[in-house]
What does this fold into?
Amino acid sequence: MGLKERLEQLRKEGLQQIANSSDPDKVNAVRVSMLGKKGSLTAVLRGMKDLAADQRPVVGKYANEVRNDLQAAIEKRSAELAKNILNAKLQAETLDVTLPGTAVAQGQPHVIQQIIDQLEDLFIGMGYQIAVGDEVEEEVYNFEKLNLPKDHPARDMQDTFYVTPSVLMRTQTSPMQARMMEKHDFTKGPLKMISPGKVYRRDTDDPTHSHQFNQVEGLVVGKHVTMADLKGTLQEVARNLFGDDLDIRLRPSYFPFTEPSVEVDITCFKCKGKGCAICKNTGWIEVLGAGMVHPNVLQMSGVDPEKYGGFAFGLGPDRFAMLKYGVEDIRDFYLNDVRFLTQFNEKG
Ligand code: PHE
It folds into this structure.
């Protein structure tokens, strides 16, 4: 076979092999086998030196054409295969954005926190500030400045956990009354605050009491603050939390830091006053303690009782939650059982 025929044969074979190559590695293998150092076309080109001088340019030109053709075919096929691979990949990795998503479980505030939030909203709307105090409190603020001197018998009702002889886990949020009054400049206007938070008491084995529970303290001190203001405010609280058709009533009571002191009842929201199991057939439910701030307490916080006066109240959101949802054991709120807690959602 003459060189020219051999070249023609190589071109045909080469183009065929390139066209048949199904991946870039195979295309490259064809390139090496034909155009590489030991390739079949390279061998032919090397044999050209044996040709007659007048034959060389003719065959040389033809050989170049064959090499260029093969090279072009190799490039084209490689690009084609690369494109196919990319397309296949794009196809395989397509995202279907119309597929339904996986639902993410959404949490909610604890039922007691929901009640505190609701109270905060209500009081902010009435111009109160929210003041959060420390759960570890000085005995002076927890008792003494609230008119409970050492050896006062009422201290027994609030036995608690002592950190040192003069520092304790607060038994009530009332210490915030003294702390806020001390800081307030009464020449600039009245002090109106609520203070929500946890309090601690030595526990007895009773399902309605826990060694740790929540309170929301309320305090308004200024000029001409009367018991009618207290009653109106608490009426607002009761209606906001339990329903518009409820009344409240005040009964005389005793707290060392208020005088007079009252116990506040609301119409039973279940039977609307007719009498049922929840209100023990009285038609009323006791919900909080309150009173007019005792002059001694004002004085000890640096407020002149001749000029200023006010009211204070302390309510238990835990108790509100128990009443509102008919929960009989306060400890259920603190067991972190999600099945129990997810039942209560004020926001729906
Ligand atoms: N601190 C009282 C308690 O824990 C409640 C209270 C607060 C009463 C403010 C009157 C005024 O029992």
Observations:
- The longest helix spans residues 56-92.
- The chain has two domains: 3-92, 111-341.
- Residues 252 and 262 are 5 Å apart (CA to CA).
- Residues 172, 174, 255, 258, 289-291, 312-314 surround phenylalanine (CB under 6 Å).
